[in-house]
Amino acid sequence: MSSAASASASVLPVPPESLPDQAGRFGAFGGCYVPETLMTALKEIGEVYETARHDPAYLDELARHLKEFAGRPTELYFAERLTRHCGGAKS
Fold this sequence. Notes:
Largest sheet: none
Number of strands: 0
Helix content: 40-55%
Radius of gyration: 23 Å
Strand content: under 5%
Number of helices: 4
Oligomer: single chain
Structural class: mainly alpha
């Protein structure tokens, strides 16, 4: 068996009970471990996000941030002053 086949064979499906329900809770007692004083702010953030996630301007900005900052490969940037300071590219 190839290494790719053995790697995919070792991946098990996620049991439904290990996923949160619609309220974000894991079973009757789990899922929301936040100090009570933060619950109002957390609920407000969730409501604002639900509205924003359908806004094209928000989605464009999010895509830009994910591309530039979120641990994804970034485009090469020509550092003009650094290149000039170092005397140009060397091969």
